[in-house]
Design goal:
Largest sheet: 8 strands, mixed
Helix content: 10-25%
Number of strands: 24
CATH topology of the largest domain: Purple Acid Phosphatase, chain A, domain 2
Bound molecules: 2-acetamido-2-deoxy-beta-D-glucopyranose, fe (ii) ion
Strand content: 25-35%
CATH superfamily of the largest domain: Metallo-dependent phosphatases
CATH architecture of the largest domain: 4-Layer Sandwich
Structural class: alpha+beta
Length: about 450
């Protein structure tokens, strides 16, 4: 009699291997994260695992990002590796007047193999115009709106997003009011090496990330280094969340810049977890990028990074300090208006600062790491409150930055509530480029460098 081994016989073996290769690293990584906590957090929301309910060849995890002034990069995943990397689009539903072919990538992480990750750069596109598009020649239709090429323009700003019930409620509040571009200063999926959670995250955010460009930079949860086997990290992040680094003269997906509202706003995405010292490629790129800005035509400069340089929460104290020491003079010398960070799971807004002192020509610093991740909130603050800290609160929420014109922007922070969100902090900011005092007195050492 023939002895046959149905697939289920293999299950115990694969399960054992899976336990070893997924969960052992996971436990080690969790242990590393747990040991950095010396503070109590509010109960986090339950993790939402978003299932795949389309066919293997249909696009999933569709998201878009700006790629140069009049192009958009469309990214999606198919389980079918034969699916084509094409995007068809047009300005009316179902009428695709243009088809563009792009390319694809994929990666493996222990026993996990990603689907086919497609990247297609489409354009030229008209500003403030709605486009209807389809990925891979089949499947559902999506649409997005190109940002306007003039003021006003509005950003939604969300850090440390994760994929919990809180994430869902934050995203719902973001969607409840229109905006043009989504900015994320790091910590996206909290997959932490469990690769299927990257797919789940992609599916959770698709309804929002396929409609407006998502511009992100990396946080510590994107690193996913495993000693010897994956020593460089960012495997999943770089494959899935490709940003316009080549378009901005950067050699790394971990830092880049782009312009919005024509060239009215220059946004710089820095990498807290790649080298930033004065001899690093990132530092030299930043120097060069800042030197190219003409503040007469570009009144606003905004920076995003993950680990905050200023922080009065007891969580993650000092983690952004060496980067601050390396790069603060460059940013302040270039009269950067605003610096967003995440990492600390709470909201905090500072006054204008340079080198730990209030300085009317320095950037305003905002920590917005309260998108909804599974680790919960960072509840404890240093006392007494620093006079540099204008507002601080450990609640989940998101921010909105509305740039009205060359001189004025309005920033607001929206705390999540049961069914709606509530504006808990807001402030008007004036561009430093409009201040003759600040533009006239840059430190002389910086003039030489820039
Ligand atoms: C995709 O195309 C871009 C630009 O043409 C290129 O830089 C990139 O290396 C390509 N990626 C892959 C995976 O072939
Ligand atoms: C997440 O939000 C969407 C849309 O707001 C909703 O349809 C879905 O049921 C929510 N999921 C959970 C688990 O709350
Ligand atoms: C810019 O917007 C602000 C706020 O609405 C307004 O007070 C100011 O007059 C505007 N400036 C210009 C030049 O339009
Ligand atoms: C939600 O909104 C209500 C009514 O505005 C308010 O009383 C309550 O404190 C809010 N809850 C949170 C968590 O902000
Ligand atoms: Fe973080």
């Amino acid at each position: 009699m023939e002895i046959r081994c149905p697939r289920t016989c293999l299950l115990p073996l694969t399960t054992a291997a899976a336990v070893f290769f997924f969960f052992v690293p996971q436990i080690l990584i969790q242990f590393a994260y747990a040991s950095e906590k010396g503070y109590t957090r509010q109960p986090p929301g339950r993790i939402i695992f978003t299932k795949h309910d389309r066919s293997e060849s249909e696009p999933q995890q569709v998201h878009i990002s700006l790629a140069g002034s009049d192009h958009m990069r469309v990214t999606w995943v198919t389980e079918d590796h034969k699916a084509h990397s094409i995007v068809e689009y047009g300005t009316a539903p179902g009428q695709y007047t243009t088809m563009i072919r792009g390319n694809h990538t994929s990666y493996t992480y222990f026993f996990y193999s990603s689907g086919k990750i497609h990247h297609v750069k489409i354009g030229p596109l008209e500003p403030a115009t709605t486009y209807y598009y389809r990925c891979g020649g089949s499947g559902p239709e999506f649409s997005f709106k190109m940002p306007p090429s003039t003021f006003p323009i509005e950003f939604a700003v969300v850090g440390d997003l994760g994929q919990t019930e809180w994430t869902n409620s934050t995203l719902k509040h973001v969607e409840s009011k229109d905006y043009d571009v989504f900015l994320l200063p790091g910590d996206l999926s909290y997959a932490d090496s469990q690769q299927p959670l990257w797919d789940s995250f992609g599916r959770l955010v698709e309804p929002i990330a396929s409609r407006r460009p998502w511009m992100v930079t990396e946080g510590n949860h994107e690193i996913e280094i495993f000693p010897i086997i994956y020593p460089h990290g960012f495997k999943a992040y770089n494959a899935r969340w490709r940003m316009p680094y080549e378009e901005s003269g950067s050699e790394s997906n971990l830092y880049y810049s782009f312009d919005v509202a024509g060239d009215g706003i220059h946004i710089i995405m820095l990498g807290s977890y790649t080298k930033f010292g004065s001899d690093s490629a990132q530092y030299k790129w930043l120097q060069h990028d800042l030197a190219k800005i003409d503040r007469k035509t570009t009144p606003w400069v905004i920076v995003l990074l993950h680990a905050p340089w200023y922080n009065t929460n007891t969580a993650h104290q000092g983690e952004g300090e060496s980067m601050r020491k390396a790069m603060e003079e460059l940013l302040c010398g270039a009269r950067v208006d605003l610096v967003f960070a995440g990492h600390v799971h709470a909201y905090e807004r500072f006054t204008r600062i340079y080198d730990n002192e209030a300085d009317s020509c320095g950037p305003v610093y905002v920590t917005i790491g309260d998108g909804g991740n599974r680790e919960g909130l960072a509840m404890s603050y240093k006392e007494p409150a620093s006079p540099l800290s204008m507002f601080r609160e450990a609640s989940f929420g998101h921010g909105r930055l509305r740039v009205l014109n060359h001189t004025h922007m309005h920033w607001s922070w929206h705390r999540n509530n049961e069914t709606n969100s509530v504006v808990a902090d807001e402030v008007w900011l004036e561009s430093l480029s409009a201040s003759s005092t600040c533009m006239g007195q840059q430190p002389s050492s910086l003039k030489d460098e820039l």
